[in-house]
Specification:
Order of helices and strands: EEHEEEEEEEHH
Radius of gyration: 15 Å
Number of helices: 3
Number of strands: 9
Low-confidence stretches: 132-158
Strand content: 25-35%
Distance between the termini: 21 Å
Helix content: 10-25%
Largest sheet: 7 strands, mixed
Mean pLDDT: 77
Amino acid sequence: MVKAVFIQSSHSDYDDQPGKAYHFPKKHYLSRVEQTVGDWVIFYEGRRGGGKGYHSVQRVLQVQDDPKDPALAYALLDTASELSFENFVPRWVEGQGPYETGLPRSRGSNTSAVRLISDADFRAYCQRRSGGARRAECHSANRRLHRRARFCRGADRL
């Protein structure tokens, strides 16, 4: 199991169903999405889609072929696990660079709609989602979320 970022946007041509299913082309992303089954993904929406940035997390239950198009598939999401961030997390932090360590330090496009991320990057989003709260406040909030949905593995060590 691996955590990831899924880009999901209101202007997408895919049949995304926010909170229920993520629609994607198998040719480009199937191997990555399959690695996320049973783990957590962070949803990102860029400027073209409304500029939310990183805005929620949810657990991936399974991958299912699209019955209408064999080139596409759905990542089915655990509807009970959806957690929206109190504050959106921007892609870029002035003077520091991107939150995702795998992204280029340039301000170009995100390049991939499905990006695998480390547990450390995921924990950083857990901390940032509360608007830059102090470490102790993040620790407390993460413990509550961990008990509620178990999405921040190791959050009690933050």
